[in-house]
Amino acid sequence: MPQLPDVEIMTIGDELLYGQVIDTNSAFMGQELAKIGLRVRQISSVSDRADEIVAALDQARQRAQVVLITGGLGPTKDDLTKHVLARYFGSELVLHEPTLAHVEDIFRRFKRPMLDVNRQQALVPANCEVVFNAVGTAPGMWFEDQGTVFVSMPGVPHEMKYLMTEGVLPRLQQRFQVKPIEHIVVQTVGLGESFLAEQIADWEAALPANFKLAYLPYLGGVRLRLTGSDDGQPHLRQRMEALLPELRTRLGEHLFAEGEIKLEEAVGQLLLARGLTLGTAESCTGGLLAHKITSIPGSSAYFRGSIVAYHNDIKTRELGVLPATLAAFGAVSEETVREMAEGARIRLGTDVALATSGIAGPDGGTPDKPVGTICIAYADARGTVSRKFTFNRGRQLNVEYTVTMALNLLRQNLPATE
Amino acid sequence: MPQLPDVEIMTIGDELLYGQVIDTNSAFMGQELAKIGLRVRQISSVSDRADEIVAALDQARQRAQVVLITGGLGPTKDDLTKHVLARYFGSELVLHEPTLAHVEDIFRRFKRPMLDVNRQQALVPANCEVVFNAVGTAPGMWFEDQGTVFVSMPGVPHEMKYLMTEGVLPRLQQRFQVKPIEHIVVQTVGLGESFLAEQIADWEAALPANFKLAYLPYLGGVRLRLTGSDDGQPHLRQRMEALLPELRTRLGEHLFAEGEIKLEEAVGQLLLARGLTLGTAESCTGGLLAHKITSIPGSSAYFRGSIVAYHNDIKTRELGVLPATLAAFGAVSEETVREMAEGARIRLGTDVALATSGIAGPDGGTPDKPVGTICIAYADARGTVSRKFTFNRGRQLNVEYTVTMALNLLRQNLPATE
Question: Do A192 and A168 belong to one domain?
């Protein structure tokens, strides 16, 4: 069995060094490579200068047996990766007919005139193997040179993702006889990483040596990824799945989904399955709760609308919050947020409703109610539940955390059937 | 005059290579270094392994005269940058009393028990100069070794930003006698990069050799950054400012602000200055318009609320859109969105109102109204204006673009005085 290669990711472009663009490609590639069990040894971002690209290639091949390159394949004059690679591998650019046909087809479909620079996208170094790019005009290029694999991809994220998923990862698995790896993702919410770890410590400790558990925290919860690598025994995936019932029991109500799915999507599926409609009333979240819910395609099937009641007048007029409640308890109180949820349910004509009110900061805090004081409520035909908590990590994060907690409150309280 | 050094940015952490964390620190550092005229030669992300950090340090000093390192300074066992650096520079860790006092002070303030690992944060290599970290417990460390400067900073973004801004950049300017550079940022909206470039081509061409203009595009507009570097003549900034009146004329109504300020913030300042209140009615933007507006601290002074009318019932019931309008023109029409804006203004009791309606996709398009068909409207006491356009770059971007266009419509139509 050949040893698994280390991988170097090389991203090319002055815009990365100037900080005009944040390199998100590397993180995607790192994640996908980890999933098939390949280790990234280093990520290097280099300029558009030919001599510096060549120097970086020389160094990368000292460190890694696979070098994945993105950027510098566009039609403009700054993009010279292709020319540099042809020279680096002692080759020359030749026309790749299938790529030309593909580029022509794209221009025909969009009814755009094809310029000479577009035609040049079909030129590739003679000694590379083309990795077909169905979603763009710049082809991927696979080189093998003295035992090292070099792959060049465009830097446009959705094109890079297509090439990685459809072309590069499968070829790497085959080329290096990478043993199958299986992943199971379990989504949790409402429990921090260390508490979660405590809750499943002995379950995790008892995992076989070829099973690994990764904690992937996000604001408000943790994704768990169980990875099983080949141990020569059959039925790898089934053996992993056999461990899940116990994990589910341990996670209890913190587990909200299995697989790659967001909380707002899971909540939407619950609403759909139960035939319930949702409305929201938002103060501190200022529309972000509705935005998260509506970011899911098809959400119009269960989401009817939101009343963002930033001003107290709107809370009374549009949501029916009693002036006496506001006067006695203030806008940021469980009493007010309960009336907001109940009002939203009635005004928006929905089965269930969520409401938020809090002090997002940076100003507006008092000794009684410091910045980060948050109230949320959920209402349905059976009644209303509310929660109060403090979370202060700056305005933006406070609001994002509130949205997660509100969606979780809905998930926990949704009636099983209507 | 010494030559300006090249800079290498080195980010340390397995989480970067696994893609669990996107490296945003490098982009910030690249931007700030560019602003003082220093070039980043390469960005390298490396693992938490001591031998690989050392190998990367050896290579970085071949390429650059300044190596800025982030990550690996926390209190946990994985964070070993400090130990590696001490060994690399043939030094040993010693207690830095001012840092210890600072760490103790932080724990006292937060009333947390101080553990031994926290005390160890005050250990630094004997041969470094400490760069004070007022916003965290891990100090910055400045080394000079055979003419190369190495600076180590924590990877926590707000701590790194503090250290860069307050400590590292000023010291680099002094150490390398970096000549002053001046920047003027001009914000535009509503015109693409190439059209903008055309409009100011001859103005740009006539710039003195030491003045450079950078186009920094975002979804819906372009930031322009004029950079002036020292040419030995006095009054650099004044000479740059003297060019602005002509630029302002060329940009016309596309210019919305000067300086580092977002469109939603500029719009908020206009509303504040004119003493006007704003409400919104949102269909396709689903709350994002209100969220952007309320992401600005202090927005409660002018923003009263939003009615997110995702379902048509809400459009009629809460915003007073006529059923006949919906029936005749559909929800995505200038007619409907005008009534939404007018309804929001009345229902929310505001001086002005914005409304959005569109087909965000991926589904819901028709031959007449394909995905990406967007209508926006602005209403005030004088009347209502609306726009219709097509923008189809996927659900999320369609919605973001709509928000920008709506804010711009408000900016263009806001009455000078009420």
Answer: no
Question: Nearest Cα to B20, choosing from A160, A18, A222, A209?
Answer: A222
Residue A287: which of B306, B349, B363 has the nearest Cβ? Answer: B306
Inter-residue contact A27 to B22 (CB < 8 Å):
yes
Chain A to chain B Cβ contacts (< 8 Å)? 228
Condensed to tens digits (0 to 9), the pLDDT of residues A38-80 reads: 999 999 999 989 999 999 999 999 999 999 999 988 766 566 8
CB contact under 8 A, B289 and A287: yes
Question: Which residue is it, tokens 């994060």?
Answer: A397
With cut-offs at 50, 70 and 90, classify the pLDDT of residue A2: low
pLDDT for position B78: 61
Q: How far apart are CA B184 and CA B165, in angstroms?
A: 18
Q: Do B291 and A295 touch (CB under 8 A)?
A: no
Shared domain for B171 and B199, answered yes or no, is: no
Out of A175, A208, A240, pick the residue that ends a domain: A175
Task: Examine the domain organization and report whether A139 and A65 are in the same domain.
Answer: yes
All residues at 6 or more sequence positions from B389 whose CB lies less than 8 Å from its CB, including other chains: B374, B405
Measured at the CA of B138, the angle between CA B132 and CA B139, to 5 degrees, comes to 30
CA angle A317-A390-B25, nearest 5°?
Answer: 110
**Three-class SS string for B299-312?**
HHHCEEEEEEECCH
Nearest C-alpha in B relative to A58: B59
What are residue B30's phi and psi, to 5 degrees? -60, -45
What is the interface pTM, i.e. ipTM, of the complex?
0.87
Q: The domain containing residue A52 runs over which residues?
A: 6-175
Q: What is the CATH number of the domain that holds B170?
A: 3.40.980.10
Strands (E), A71-166: 93-95, 123-125, 129-131, 140-145, 148-153
Of the residues B175, B209, B231, the one at which a domain ends = B175
Band (pLDDT 50/70/90 cuts) for residue B418 is very low
The answer to whether B46 contacts A45, with C-beta atoms less than 8 Å apart, is: no
Helix (H, G, I), strand (E, B) or coil at A385: strand
Three-state DSSP class for A236?
helix
- The encoded tokens of residue B4 equal 């300006």
φ/ψ region of B297 (left if φ > 0, alpha if ψ in -120 to 50, else beta) reads beta
